[in-house]
Amino acid sequence: MKRALLLSGGMDSLALAWWLRPEIGITLNYGQLAAEAEISASSTVCKQLDIEHHVVSIDCRSVGSGDMAGGKADAHAPASDWWPYRNQMLVTLAAMKAIGLGVNKLYLGTVKSDGSHRDGTPEFVAAINQLMVIQEGEMSIEAPAIGLSTTELVKTAGVPSSMLAWAHSCHKSNVPCGNCRGCFKYFEVWHELEHGQDQPQ
Fold first, then answer.
1. What is the DSSP string of 53-89?
2. pLDDT tens for residues 139-175?
3. Cα separation of 102 and 4, whole Å?
4. Which has more pLDDT, 76 or 35?
5. Over the stretch 105-136, which tens digit does the pLDDT of each residue have?
6. At 125, phi and psi to the nearest 5?
7. To the nearest whole number, what is the mean pLDDT of the chain?
8. What is the third-level CATH fold of 3-195?
């Protein structure tokens, strides 16, 4: 069994890398504004854990919307950071790379709070897994932390603060803007860790 992780360099995927130690990490530059910082954070954790790291670059910004694409949110957006069909796109692109590397299982860093978007729900993960399994290669998709908050995942993974500090969560820039949902979540998780409490997300 060869495992890969869709690694964005955010707190969730970084903690999952530390916890599960997959053989391969795949980071996507799909035209998101923070791609450079996400690749840097992902590369750092892979070097630390001796994980084989691959970066796939395909510019999809012209079909994106919202904070990550530097544009106006789509009319269907439940939040300003919504990019239409983003997780479906990311899973597909990562799997396209992973299958050529002999991967059988692809991990996603989805956590409980991602359920605010439909493509962050257990139903979506089950559906995308079913779609992948019926195709050539029969690659399975798992989100091992989907029932956990980010704070719970960090604690379960045992990732040290020095490594977690490398995480990049900003949706708008390679330098944290401090004013987007990603940055707010980053600050909130650090607050919960420092005060030893888990708050609903």
1. EEEEE---GGG--SGGGTSPPPTT-SSTT--TTHHHH
2. 999 999 999 999 999 999 999 999 999 999 999 999 9
3. 10
4. 35
5. 999 999 999 988 899 999 999 999 999 999 99
6. -60, -40
7. 92
8. Rossmann fold (3.40.50)
Count the alpha carbons within 13 Å of 136 in the hemisphere toward its beta carbon. 3
> What's the CA gap between 32 and 168, in Å, rounded?
13
* Burial grade of 56 (CB within 10 A; 0-12, 13-18, 19 or more): middle
Helix, strand, or coil here: 5?
strand
- What is the three-class DSSP state of 1? coil
**Alpha-carbon distance 52 to 41, whole Å?**
14
Q: How far apart are CA 149 and CA 131, in angstroms?
A: 26
Backbone angles phi, psi at 124, to 5 degrees: -65, -45
The ranges assigned to domains in the chain are 3-195
- Both structure tokens of 2: 């060869």
pLDDT value, residue 197:
55
- Integer Rg of the chain from CA: 16
How much of the chain, in percent, has pLDDT values that exceed 70?
A: 98
- CA-nearest of 97, 28, 37 to 64 is 28
Triad 150, 64, 142: Cα angle to 5°? 40
Q: Which residue has the higher pLDDT, 88 or 76?
A: 88
pTM of the model: 0.91
